[in-house]
Amino acid sequence: MHFSTIFAATALVGAAFAEDHTVAVSTKSGDLIFKPDSIKAAEGDTVTFKFWPKNHSIAQAAFASPCQPMANGFWSGFVPTTDTAAVANTTFTYEVKNASAPIWFYCTQGNHCNMGMVGVINPPTSGEKTLAAFKNASEAATGNVSPTSTAGTGGNLTVNGTTTSGSASSSASAPASSTGAASHLTGSVAFAGLTGLFTYFLL
């Protein structure tokens, strides 16, 4: 019983302190970039993509095949929006399962990938597989292919506040900055987890 208590408390504390990293998909002025295009995230962290006009997407790729969807990779679907004053009310969130494995991604719209609209989560710290090399390869690619899987696959697609979890990924943690209620809940979960740990050692 003590073991299950401390295990549950530790899991709750870990989830409470997971970080959400925000990535802008394009910009107000329509630049074909991800900002930032390189993200360092720990296991359990989430990466939330927020979309600017006009119509962009995110798909996972293998380093050796830029602008081509990776089998069982994530896919946001297309997110059209015309409001240049604010990001779209649709977001795509991916949870990092393995921080030691680089996650390469690209925009599948038109020739955006071929224009260098690519990025990476947890790039290698050494070797030839760099973001610059991936961009160069994407610009040399002859096509830009969209996945045929359902939009939201491999992550959480949120539209107007309603979230749909993709089949290849579990529900992601709520961004700490999303609402005051979410922040309060995170703090409460952390407190509950720590209380469980202290209770265990006192018994």
UniProtKB/TrEMBL annotation:
<keyword id="KW-0732">Signal</keyword>
<dbReference type="Pfam" id="PF00127">
    <property type="entry name" value="Copper-bind"/>
</dbReference>
<dbReference type="InterPro" id="IPR052953">
    <property type="entry name" value="Ser-rich/MCO-related"/>
</dbReference>
<feature type="region of interest" description="Disordered">
    <location>
        <begin position="142"/>
        <end position="173"/>
    </location>
</feature>
<feature type="signal peptide">
    <location>
        <begin position="1"/>
        <end position="18"/>
    </location>
</feature>
<keyword id="KW-0479">Metal-binding</keyword>
<keyword id="KW-0186">Copper</keyword>
<feature type="compositionally biased region" description="Low complexity">
    <location>
        <begin position="156"/>
        <end position="173"/>
    </location>
</feature>
<dbReference type="GO" id="GO:0005507">
    <property type="term" value="F:copper ion binding"/>
</dbReference>
<feature type="domain" description="Blue (type 1) copper">
    <location>
        <begin position="22"/>
        <end position="121"/>
    </location>
</feature>
<dbReference type="InterPro" id="IPR008972">
    <property type="entry name" value="Cupredoxin"/>
</dbReference>
<protein>
    <recommendedName>
        <fullName>Blue (type 1) copper domain-containing protein</fullName>
    </recommendedName>
</protein>
<dbReference type="GO" id="GO:0009055">
    <property type="term" value="F:electron transfer activity"/>
</dbReference>
<feature type="compositionally biased region" description="Polar residues">
    <location>
        <begin position="142"/>
        <end position="151"/>
    </location>
</feature>
<dbReference type="InterPro" id="IPR000923">
    <property type="entry name" value="BlueCu_1"/>
</dbReference>
